[in-house]
Design brief:
Length: 89
């Protein structure tokens, strides 16, 4: 829960931090949906043909758009995310 709150603050209050880390992220989303189940299962998450989809995808909040913000975010999910970060972070 604290990590989710931290991510909200990083996204909304420290835009410079977000822009710096955004550049270091590589990879692609595998649509596993695990980032939508941190702390609680998002009510807008649904699975179609075993792929996670968002019912409000075009209007989803910034905290969802930027996941993972950094490597700490990846520690919150149980499986491997399709994104990763450079070792220098
Ligand atoms: S955990 Fe990573 S791969 Fe899975 S849905 Fe979220 S961003 Fe995509």
């Amino acid at each position: 829960m604290l990590k989710k709150i931290r991510r909200h603050f990083k996204v909304y209050l420290t835009k410079k931090y977000f822009e710096k880390h955004k550049e270091k992220k590589t990879g692609n989303c595998k649509r596993c949906g695990n980032c939508c189940k941190i702390w609680y299962k998002c009510p807008f998450l649904e699975f179609k043909s075993k792929e996670a989809t968002c019912k409000i995808y075009k209007h989803r909040p910034a905290v969802c758009r930027i996941f993972p913000l950094n490597r700490k975010d990846l520690e919150e999910i149980s499986t491997k995310c399709g994104f990763h970060f450079e070792k220098s972070l």
